């Protein structure tokens, strides 16, 4: 187990380095002149020259990258916004909790919905419930998220008045007057975004879980357990669920990257200034440090999450430790 | 002030010595709600959204856009200011930080302001004349890079200003420590003018000239200094660009203007189409969207809330002329015949229809109704006339058939996208085949317009929707400020026309030197000549603002001057 | 919304079991597939719908434009109701007068589904022409990513060893990037230049989207193909081919690739659906197809302005996307069942 964790850890670090190099090259080296971009609207050659120095653009690429990496690791710094000089770390610190809340809460919701529906569909294939589940799945996969978000906002937020229509509240209670906060408010304001966001993934996971459960049910060890006279509930929970959930865990790990990006549509509909919105604003201003910061941050989040999933998986399923 | 995001029709003039004329075009009165000061009560948090845009900056000497000034009007302590009163009373200047209107001596060339005692910044520091002196310096200093004061000729008005600002020189250098013509001693601010200036007191009501800390630094950053002490009714407590701005009441504030809400919270969503904010306003979850009602929703909102100015739906006039700025520095709009052809092809009424009901009234001149020198004329039609456009454009237009024509627009605004698409089609129809749509920043629309290199570069704009609102009530502020090409510099330009014509320059100099009715007549002639002979812009309309407020908001007082409501006067019921 | 792009759930097992090589005696296998497919009514209907859609997009659109007498990008200021300022509703005869209120006899033109917004363009024609754009993005992006993916998968699965290690690691690295965030950033920073590439026949923006979706979509098909080739390589017929002295390329081209046809078709069908959703998503953010070109995403982007008042503007493009993606998904499911009845997904 220890050796496995160390191996995955090294791999995660390698991934991190490669991903940051690629991101840095695409956004900092390929654009014609970051110094001119950084200089903004009120610009003269002496300022550009000064900025070029302060951004270390005069150094060879590998040294630039090394400084970027060093600042990130040593000082936790991702640089400063070209537009207003705010630190990128601070900007991400403002946006990440919003996207994080959306994705984490959404993931809990879609698992809570798709596991029971998927299992029941698998146990009773071709029943009315199974068919209804499949219709739900198809709509979830095929309908544009914004479409669903708008309709939910109009019906539940406006017409019925059950939920807030838009905006975000901080999870941690703050003393700042006029800015809403606290866990209850936080969750209440996220009800609609979660519902919108989870729909797509819930649909995919129902499909996935249904297939996994059906496959596991036909495996030899399940038949053996049945033959030995285990109750069907025991077979389901002890044998089937445990085994059919393993691939779900892996896929959850891989989906987190997709989810971080997919959140942008939900953010747009519900006025959530999360990572996606920050990225769109920054990219349209060619605010390169913020663009790179957001992409690197999200990449690191994916790497860490995948690492944790690997470890959890290996812990759940001993075979994995030997094969990878 | 230049440029408006949203827009208007009813217009009032203002000023001490100037006329106060109310022009109504379509909307009977912009006065709404209970604006009875006695019912006004303090307390609560005003929740405002800003959809589909962001503050350019809230640095008082770098900001020059309507939405920015709306915020600053809550935080700035000015020497003279407009009271937050409805209707005509709101257009009469009153001495705010000054004890009285200034005394003029030395043939009107020496102005002395005496400041009130006991005024304080939100950090408890007393307000002195040095705080106002610093504002002048930050308006003019080349160390600020954006020397907006140069466009308004502030340097030429004040003794020593030209030397201090060195408007034609390089930016970024420090010239001298202080402006020689301005001296601050305790509570006495003395300003030496180069010549008597009837509008000088009005100019002092611009948000640029509010009290700021006397050591407030020069800054290069586009967003300027984010948070700084204020001496007005409120101060900026939080300023996270393009997300959140929080204003809190200045606890030392004892001025005449109200400071009703305890806190004013402004959430900014640069990429939003405003639909969520509209629903939230209707549901009472926020108080208003300062971007206004999305144009496609105006008709429905108006009918739901009983029409304009009957309750929660407010239509207010502005002094703002909305135009498609034509870039005179970039082919093919550097050619007058092409610019005139574009005026015929685009025209006004279709764009006004795109903007929805109550958006404004058609205009094809630079000056706005009520302005001295305003005299209505019709040079260009309200509806497109393609054959006329082609004949006016002549060979220059034919020659430009394949020259790229770039239309600059804000993609997050469906209205601006629609207008850009419409303009593209009109230009195609008159034979300009290579028309491109250039998407703007979400958070800084004006940056690329201000910089000569980007404006005149290959991706520069030929057409850009913008507008101009009064800084102070004088035709000078519309004509000279926008069309004097000698004030153009490499960066920080407030005029987006890049128009420079030496004979017109000298005519403007001549008009600016006149006074009284001769001045009005001269500007009326300039206004017409500009459109007939040069057509540097496509004027569209004198614009209206269209706002929806939540049910709980009372005491809606609309400032014609800014074309924005007074947040500080609003009462939360 | 485009989070469903190449969703990993699809990948692990849709076609995990390759067609039995023995059965690939050309006709026999495909006849079997066809006979199984024929029995799947839902898949047949979906297939018919997709054929209809292509016909509607490429033949129907110009025909309808000709019949109605106006084009999809024509602006009709008269298609705005002058009292409500709202776009006219379905089945309205719109005056051909240049502007509202102009007197004279200009005649009318029919807006079958009403106008698309304040510009008063014909929603029906824009839906039809938008189908072209959306299908082009869907198909070209799929060809790009599947083509690249199959090539890489073949290499990795066939050569194994360091080639496989390299490609597998490349796949793992690519999967670490938050796909959509990266696409958004790239689209804005580099999109302007790419938009001008039209290859002479594509609308502005289609190439950009197809390229970006391909570059960020190849590794999913590559993983699947690698797995399949891995197991195929052990089969006797590959061994036999090698014995006869066939070169590696020849084996890959003539012996392995035919076995991949079925999974490629199945996977591509499903991928087209997610690419169409991807276009809708990016266009909604204003980062997709460049206006005035009609695409379903562009139509959907206008819709929020009217979702309270003129709901059809939201409903029609929404349903078009819903039905189309559903049809591709169902067709994909049907094809998978036909190709490999043992697969349960």
Any key phrases for this structure?
heterotrimer, A: 324 residues, mainly alpha, MetI-like fold, 13 helices, 0% strand, globular, C: 345 residues, two-stranded antiparallel ribbon, 12 helices, 2 strands, 63% helix
- Spell out the helices and strands of chain A N to C: HHHHHHHHHHHHH
Count of domains of chain C: 2
Low-confidence stretches of chain A: none
Q: Order of strands in the sheet with the most strands of chain C?
A: 1-2
- Shape category of chain A: globular
Share in helix of chain C: 55-70%
How many DSSP helices of chain A?
Answer: 13
CATH topology-level name of the largest domain in chain C: MetI-like fold
Q: Count interface residues per chain for the largest interface.
A: A-C, 58 and 51 residues
> What is the H level of CATH, i.e. the homologous superfamily of the largest domain in chain C?
MetI-like
Can you count the beta strands of chain C?
Answer: 2
Average pLDDT of chain A: 83
The tally of helices of chain C reads: 12
How many beta strands in the DSSP annotation of chain A?
0
CATH superfamily of the domain at 97-273 and 301-323 in chain A: MetI-like
Query: Which class best fits the helix and strand makeup of chain A?
Result: mainly alpha
Could you write a compact summary of the structure shown?
With 573 residues, chain B is α+β, with helices and mostly antiparallel strands. Chain B is built from 17 helices and 23 strands. In chain B, 25% of the residues lie in helices and 19% in strands.
Please, could you describe this protein's structure?
The complex is a heterotrimer of chains A (324), B (573) and C (345). Chain A has helices spanning 2-29, 34-39, 45-54, 61-75, 88-123, 128-142, 145-159, 183-217, 220-227, 232-269, 275-284, 288-316, 319-323. With 324 residues, chain A is mainly alpha-helical. Chain A has a domain at 97-273 and 301-323: MetI-like (MetI-like fold, Orthogonal Bundle). In chain A, helix 10 (232-269) packs antiparallel against helix 12 (288-316) and helix 11 (275-284) packs antiparallel against helix 12 (288-316). In chain A, 44% of the residues are buried. With 573 residues, chain B is α+β, with helices and mostly antiparallel strands. Chain B has a domain at 320-470 and 489-544: Roll (Dipeptide-binding Protein, domain 3). In chain B, the strands form 7 sheets. Chain B has a 6-stranded mixed sheet with strand order 15-19-14-18-16-17. In chain B, strands 10-11-12-3-13 form a 5-stranded mixed sheet, covered by helices on one side. Chain C is elongated, with a radius of gyration of 23 Å. Chain C has 345 residues and is mostly helical. Chain C contains 12 helices and 2 strands. Residues 1-18 of chain C have low confidence and may be disordered. A two-stranded antiparallel sheet of chain C has the order 1-2. Chain C has helices at 8-12, 27-38, 41-68, 123-159, 161-176, 179-195, 206-215, 219-232, 236-243, 248-284, 296-302, 312-339; strands spanning 92-95, 108-111. Chain C folds into 2 domains: 75-121, no CATH class; 127-339, Orthogonal Bundle (MetI-like fold), CATH 1.10.3720.10. The chains are: A mainly alpha (324), B alpha+beta (573), C mainly alpha (345). Chains A and C meet through helix 1, helix 6, helix 7, helix 8 and helix 10 of A and helix 1, helix 5, helix 6, helix 10 and helix 12 of C.
């Amino acid at each position: 187990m220890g050796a496995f964790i160390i191996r995955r850890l090294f791999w995660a670090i390698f991934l991190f380095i490669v991903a940051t190099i690629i991101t840095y090259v695409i956004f900092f080296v390929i654009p014609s002149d970051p110094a001119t971009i950084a200089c903004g609207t009120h610009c003269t050659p002496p300022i550009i020259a000064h900025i070029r120095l302060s951004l270390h653009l005069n150094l060879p690429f590998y040294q630039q990258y090394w400084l970027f990496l060093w600042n990130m690791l040593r000082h936790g710094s991702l640089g400063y916004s070209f537009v207003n000089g705010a630190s990128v770390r601070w900007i991400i610190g403002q946006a990440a909790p919003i996207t994080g809340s959306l994705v984490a809460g959404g993931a809990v919701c879609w698992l809570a919905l798709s596991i029971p529906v998927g299992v029941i569909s698998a146990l009773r294939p071709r029943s009315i419930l199974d068919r209804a589940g499949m219709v739900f799945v198809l709509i979830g996969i095929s309908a544009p998220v914004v479409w669903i978000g708008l309709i939910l906002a109009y019906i539940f937020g406006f017409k019925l008045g059950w939920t807030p229509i838009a905006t975000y509240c901080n999870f941690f209670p703050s003393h700042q007057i006029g800015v809403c906060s606290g866990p209850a408010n936080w969750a209440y304001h996220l009800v609609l975004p979660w519902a919108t966001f989870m729909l797509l993934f819930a649909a995919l996971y129902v499909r996935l879980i249904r297939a996994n459960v059906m496959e596991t049910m036909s495996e030899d060890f399940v038949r053996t357990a049945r033959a030995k006279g285990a109750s069907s509930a025991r077979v389901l929970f002890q044998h089937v669920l445990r085994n059919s959930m393993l691939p779900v865990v892996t896929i959850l790990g891989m989906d987190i990257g997709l989810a971080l990006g997919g959140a942008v549509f939900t953010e747009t509909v519900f006025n959530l200034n999360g990572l996606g919105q920050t990225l769109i604003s920054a990219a349209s201003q060619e605010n390169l440090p913020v663009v790179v910061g957001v992409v690197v941050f999200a990449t690191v989040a994916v790497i860490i999450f995948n690492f944790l999933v690997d470890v959890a998986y290996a812990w759940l399923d001993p075979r994995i430790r030997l094969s990878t | 002030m230049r440029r408006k995001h949203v827009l208007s029709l009813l217009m009032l003039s203002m000023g001490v010595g100037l006329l106060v004329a109310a022009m109504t075009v379509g909307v009977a009165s912009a006065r709404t709600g209970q604006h009875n000061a006695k019912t006004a009560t303090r307390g609560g948090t005003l929740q405002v959204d800003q959809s589909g845009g962001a503050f350019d900056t809230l640095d008082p000497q770098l900001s020059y856009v309507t939405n920015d000034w709306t915020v600053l009007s809550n935080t700035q302590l000015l020497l003279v200011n407009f009271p937050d009163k409805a209707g005509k009373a709101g257009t009469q200047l009153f001495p705010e930080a000054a004890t009285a209107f200034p005394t003029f001596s030395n043939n009107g060339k020496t102005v002395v302001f005496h400041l009130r005692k006991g005024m304080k910044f939100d950090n408890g520091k007393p307000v002195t004349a040095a705080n106002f002196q610093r504002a002048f310096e930050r308006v003019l200093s080349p160390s600020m890079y954006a020397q907006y004061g140069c466009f308004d000729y502030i340097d030429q008005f004040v003794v020593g200003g030209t030397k201090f600002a060195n408007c034609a020189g390089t930016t970024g250098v420090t010239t001298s420590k202080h402006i020689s013509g301005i001296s601050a001693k305790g509570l006495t601010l003395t300003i030496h003018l180069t010549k008597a200036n009837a509008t000088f007191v009005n100019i002092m009501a611009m948000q640029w000239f509010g009290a700021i800390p006397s050591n407030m630094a020069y800054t290069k950053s586009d967003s300027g200094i984010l948070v700084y002490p204020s001496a007005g009714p409120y101060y900026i407590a939080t300023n996270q660009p393009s997300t959140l701005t929080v204003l809190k009441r200045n606890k030392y504030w004892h001025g005449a203007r109200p400071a009703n809400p305890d806190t004013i919270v402004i959430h900014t969503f640069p990429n939003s189409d405003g639909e969520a904010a509209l629903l939230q306003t209707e549901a009472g979850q926020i108080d208003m969207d300062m971007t206004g009602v999305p144009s496609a929703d105006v008709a429905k909102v108006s009918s739901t809330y009983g029409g304009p100015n009957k309750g929660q739906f407010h239509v207010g006039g502005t002094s703002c002329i909305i135009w498609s700025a034509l870039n005179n520095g970039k082919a093919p709009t550097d050619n007058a015949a092409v610019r005139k052809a574009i005026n015929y092809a685009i025209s006004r009424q279709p764009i006004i229809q795109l903007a929805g009901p109550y958006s404004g009234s058609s205009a094809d001149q630079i000056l706005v109704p009520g302005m001295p020198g305003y005299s209505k004329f019709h040079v260009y039609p309200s509806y497109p006339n393609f054959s006329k456009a082609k004949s006016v454009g002549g060979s220059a237009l034919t020659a430009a058939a394949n020259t790229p024509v770039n239309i600059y627009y804000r993609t997050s605004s469906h209205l601006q996208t629609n207008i850009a698409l419409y303009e593209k089609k009109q230009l195609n129809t008159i034979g300009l085949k290579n028309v491109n749509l250039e998407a703007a920043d979400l958070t800084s629309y004006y940056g690329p317009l201000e910089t000569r290199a980007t404006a005149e570069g290959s991706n520069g704009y030929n057409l850009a929707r913008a507008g101009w609102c009064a800084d102070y009530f004088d035709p000078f502020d519309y004509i000279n400020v926008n069309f004097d090409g000698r004030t153009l510099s490499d960066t920080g330009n407030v005029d987006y026309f890049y128009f420079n014509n030496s004979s017109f320059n000298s005519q403007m100099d001549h008009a600016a030197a006149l006074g009284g009715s001769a001045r009005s007549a001269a500007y009326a002639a300039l206004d017409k000549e500009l459109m007939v002979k040069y057509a540097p812009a496509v004027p569209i309309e004198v614009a209206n603002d269209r706002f929806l407020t939540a049910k709980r908001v009372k005491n809606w007082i609309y400032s014609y001057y800014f074309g924005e409501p007074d947040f500080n006067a609003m009462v939360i019921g | 919304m485009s989070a469903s792009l190449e969703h990993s759930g699809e990948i692990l097992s849709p076609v995990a079991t390759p067609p039995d090589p023995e059965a690939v005696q050309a006709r026999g296998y495909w006849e079997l597939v066809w006979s199984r497919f024929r029995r799947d009514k839902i898949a047949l209907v979906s297939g018919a719908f997709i054929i209809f859609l292509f016909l509607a997009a490429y033949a129907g659109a110009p025909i309808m434009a000709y019949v109605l007498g106006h084009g999809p990008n024509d602006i009709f200021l008269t298609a705005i109701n002058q009292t409500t300022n709202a776009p006219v509703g379905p089945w309205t005869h719109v005056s051909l007068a240049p502007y509202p209120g102009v007197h004279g006899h200009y005649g009318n033109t029919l807006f079958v589904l009403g106008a698309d917004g304040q510009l008063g363009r014909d929603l029906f024609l824009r839906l039809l022409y938008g189908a072209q754009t959306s299908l082009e993005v869907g198909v070209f992006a799929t060809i790009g990513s599947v083509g690249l993916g199959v090539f890489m998968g073949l290499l990795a699965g066939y050569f194994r060893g360091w080639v496989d290690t390299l490609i597998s690691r490349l796949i793992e690295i690519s999967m670490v990037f938050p796909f959509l965030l990266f696409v958004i950033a790239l689209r804005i920073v580099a999109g302007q230049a790419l938009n001008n590439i039209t290859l002479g026949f594509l609308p502005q923006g289609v190439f950009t989207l197809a390229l970006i979706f391909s570059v960020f979509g190849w590794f999913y098909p590559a993983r699947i193909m690698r797995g399949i080739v891995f197991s195929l390589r052990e089969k006797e017929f590959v061994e036999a081919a090698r014995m006869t002295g066939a070169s590696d390329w020849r084996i890959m081209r003539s012996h392995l690739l035919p076995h991949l046809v079925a999974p490629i078709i199945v996977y591509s069908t499903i991928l087209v659906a997610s690419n169409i959703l991807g276009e809708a998503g990016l266009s909604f953010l204003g980062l997709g197809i460049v206006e005035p070109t009609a695409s379903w995403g562009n139509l959907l982007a206008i819709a929020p302005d009217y979702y309270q008042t003129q709901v059809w503007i939201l409903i029609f493009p929404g349903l078009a996307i819903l039905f189309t993606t559903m049809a591709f998904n169902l067709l994909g499911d049907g094809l998978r069942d036909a190709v490999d009845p043992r697969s349960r997904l």
